[in-house]
């Protein structure tokens, strides 16, 4: 009913899990991730509590193989359960119950575990492993490549409906994530997941721009803001922030052109521009004056763009 992949990227110090299924909201049910600990899935007859319990066991120091063995020994539904876990070292363990609907199974390599049930054929899991191994780029993209490879040769025999992708750092507080994306119901969930990943990359670039602006590194901030607008050309708000950054750097014509384009595409952003305090957007007063737009800035905002802008 579902296929998934767990993996680590030691170079980037990241762990991740991705899943696809012909079921509503698989991303909210099957995968769990915990920074500094690992990632786990519970599928076939899924119980999210089992994924959480596997991560609890790993966090307490149990090896993945021990955590799986202990859980399976105590699970009355083990014949119909499919479980997998990976820790930050890349150690993995998995269980596929004899009652899981064929084709069902799992396979592991160094820092990698793929598993699925009700698959179109026995070729799906090897295709996932090969696609992940052959993919370039960051972990999230490689995980998505594995899902696409599986879907390309049939994936879930029933079809496709939902997908999810989680990436977390290998260290830090357990709640931290780097990517947390879900498609709950879509005719092509993996294409939609890819689109969301593109959008996530754009907003990540904008956040880096915020950070550099807060550090008074205007040239780097502009570079990131422009990258964000290019990665998500459909986002009028990202275009607005890029324009404000350009005006603030002295590139007034280029910046105003972007600001006007953003306001033409999404007039409600004019109200945002009216309310922006100079401490959050130093170029806002100059832009408002050029547009003959009255100010409604309330003051009292943080110094610099900071880490969250105007969420």
UniProtKB/TrEMBL annotation:
Highest taxon above the source species: Bacteria
Pfam families membership: DUF1028
PANTHER family: BLL2871 PROTEIN
Name of the protein in question: Uncharacterized protein
Organism whose genome encodes this protein: Patulibacter medicamentivorans
């Amino acid at each position: 009913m579902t296929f998934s992949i767990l993996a680590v990227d030691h170079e980037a110090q990241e762990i991740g899990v991705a899943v696809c299924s012909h079921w509503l909201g698989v991303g909210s049910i099957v995968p769990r991730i915990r920074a500094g600990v690992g990632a786990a899935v519970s599928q076939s007859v899924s119980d999210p509590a089992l994924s959480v319990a596997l991560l609890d066991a790993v966090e307490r120091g149990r090896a993945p193989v021990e955590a799986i063995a202990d859980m399976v020994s105590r699970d009355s539904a083990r014949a119909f359960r499919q479980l997998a876990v990976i820790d930050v070292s890349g150690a993995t363990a998995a269980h596929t119950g004899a009652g899981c609907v064929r084709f069902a199974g799992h396979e592991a390599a160094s820092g990698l575990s793929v598993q699925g049930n009700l698959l179109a054929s026995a070729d799906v899991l090897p295709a996932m492993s090969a696609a992940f191994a052959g993919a370039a780029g960051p972990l999230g993209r490689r995980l998505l490549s594995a899902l696409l490879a599986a879907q390309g040769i049939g994936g879930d025999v029933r079809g496709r409906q939902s997908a999810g992708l989680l990436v977390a750092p290998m260290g830090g507080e357990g709640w931290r994530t780097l990517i947390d994306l879900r498609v709950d119901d879509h005719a092509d969930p993996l294409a939609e997941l890819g689109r969301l990943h593109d959008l996530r990359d754009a907003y990540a670039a904008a956040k880096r721009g915020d950070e550099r602006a807060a550090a008074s590194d205007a040239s780097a901030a502009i570079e990131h803001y422009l990258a964000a607008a290019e990665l998500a050309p459909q986002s009028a708000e990202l275009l607005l922030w890029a324009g404000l950054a350009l005006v603030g750097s002295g590139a007034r014509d280029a910046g105003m052109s972007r600001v006007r384009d953003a306001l033409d595409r999404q007039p409600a952003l004019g109200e945002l521009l009216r309310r922006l305090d100079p401490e959050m957007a130093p170029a806002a007063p100059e832009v408002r004056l050029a547009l003959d737009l009255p100010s409604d800035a309330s003051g009292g905002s943080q110094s610099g763009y900071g880490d969250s802008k105007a969420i």
